[in-house]
Design brief:
This protein is α/β, with parallel strands linked by helices and 440 residues long. Helices cover 39% and strands 13% of the residues. The structure holds pyridoxal-5'-phosphate (PLP) and zinc ion.
């Protein structure tokens, strides 16, 4: 009874089935979005939706225990349950970072641990949707033979894993030498065809677009708005975790700008359906070395800035020509948003401070935390406000970032919080002396 279809994000006429191979508007070439029949969704009251999602949370009734498919009617309502490819994604902890919050002047600070998931990043939220739709397309006799993506590391890991779980061949395009070794080995282990190209992410994106043109290979990048539908559940899940109360701020690291668009889309749907009555403010955080969106923001979004992105520790957001630019501009405008940037030093130091309070943050989460620190210092984020930082990947994927920091060997970074191991002989007296010094 609920329906969803593709339509042009810019508003050109036309609608297309979600099971058709189409990524951009045939009229204007802009991005598509998944549109839902909101009137039909309103047939169920806000209270009834909240009750339904509450009942499904933690259930073993496949696939409704997943943090994405719990909201299935709002995601892909007509997908057949047997075609869902799920790893119980979502359901990630909302960590109350009270100690870090107190140190930085916002005690009501929460970190959404989206990286604590099957492949270690939030990309699982979108990939479960995309791969499930492809599975249904194939079951219905589509000519699609494989799924491909360009990636800064986490999209390819998610695609390879979900593809392997479904038995669908995958092809991933990675910028050579620009992803962490954990991110490189993930799709290799999952049996994807891994193509490491001598270029950057934007170069990989250009190649994959050409390769997928004949429609036998399906494109899994976030210009494919199916992924946005899955990723939009992160904000919905956070609000559910707060018993349907709205925090004041969301801070999120951004690169290709799909995830912030998704966050905004989920929150807007909550408002349209009367589950929340106000919107939070959004902060998009960029690495200063790859900051086209920040530059556009500074010019009040009069035009899109595309630049070549320089090397940054936050490698998953080293993107110079963000695909979801228009969607993200709209999100920032609708949510009274701010775009902030962080230097290499700021992001590494913020990540280290967070780790000292029990977290284990990836460099991108460091970018978001560093942006938050700046906004608190400027008095934009106030001490009584409730703030959610979206952590996008697991720190364990970025071991050389951590080791480099604690060895104080990162370029442009002064490791104020380095905590290197103490190398000692196996001598009790020497050990005791060292401990006395440390604990005094
Ligand atoms: C993909 C990714 C991002 C950025 O998300 P976009 O949708 O490209 O803006 C941030 N952090 C991590 C760890 C990622 O993998
Ligand atoms: Zn259009």
């Amino acid at each position: 009874m609920y329906q969803a279809y593709f339509r042009c994000f810019r508003g050109c006429p036309g609608q297309w089935p979600l099971y058709e191979v189409i990524y951009t508007c045939p009229t204007c070439g802009g991005l598509l979005e998944v549109a839902h029949d909101v009137e039909a969704l309103r047939n169920r009251s806000a209270a009834a939706w909240m009750r339904l999602f509450g009942e499904r949370s933690g259930t073993t009734h496949f696939p409704y225990g997943s943090g994405v498919w719990r909201y299935k009617e709002w995601v892909i309502p007509d997908l057949v349950d047997e075609n869902v490819v799920s790893t119980f994604e979502g359901n990630t902890n909302l960590f109350w970072a009270s100690r870090l919050g107190e140190q930085i002047g916002v005690p009501d600070l929460w970190v959404k641990q989206s990286g604590n998931s099957h492949t270690g990043s939030f990309k699982d939220l979108g990939m479960t949707v995309l791969v499930s739709v492809v599975k249904q397309m194939m079951a219905q006799g589509s000519t699609v033979k494989a799924v491909a993506c360009a990636s800064t590391g986490d999209t390819s890991a998610a695609l390879a894993s979900y593809g392997a779980a479904a038995g669908i061949p995958t092809i991933v395009f990675l910028p050579q030498g620009k992803v962490s070794s954990a991110q490189l080995i993930q799709p290799i282990a999952n049996g994807a065809t891994v193509l490491a190209l001598d270029t950057d992410f934007d170069g990989c994106m250009r190649v994959v677009k050409e390769v997928t043109k004949d429609n036998s290979i399906y494109l899994a990048n976030s210009m494919n708005s199916l992924r946005i539908e899955g990723q939009k559940t992160v904000g919905i899940e956070i609000i559910q975790q707060f018993d349907w109360e709205v925090p004041d701020w969301f801070v999120i690291p951004v690169g290709n700008l799909g995830n912030i668009s998704a966050l905004a889309k989920g929150l807007l749907l909550l408002k349209e359906l009367g589950i929340i009555d106000r919107l939070p403010r959004l902060v998009a955080a960029q690495a200063a070395h790859a900051n086209p969106f920040y530059q556009s923001y500074q010019q009040e979004f009069t035009h899109k800035v595309a630049r070549s992105a320089h090397k940054t520790l936050a490698s998953a957001i080293q993107i110079g020509d963000p695909v979801s630019y228009e969607k993200a501009v709209k999100a920032v405008q609708q949510f009274d948003g701010i775009v902030e940037e962080a230097t290499e030093h700021e992001l590494a130091d913020a990540a280290a401070r967070a780790d000292l309070t029990g977290l284990y943050t990836c460099p991108h989460t460091g970018v978001a935390l560093a942006a938050l620190l700046k906004l608190v210092a400027r008095g934009v984020v106030k001490s009584h406000e409730k703030v959610v930082v979206i952590s996008t990947a697991h720190g364990l994927k970025f071991t050389s970032f951590k080791v480099g920091y604690h060895d104080d060997e990162l370029e442009e970074v002064e490791a104020h919080h380095a905590n290197p191991p103490i190398y000692l002989p196996a001598d009790v007296d020497v050990v005791k002396k060292a401990l006395e010094k440390r604990l005094s």
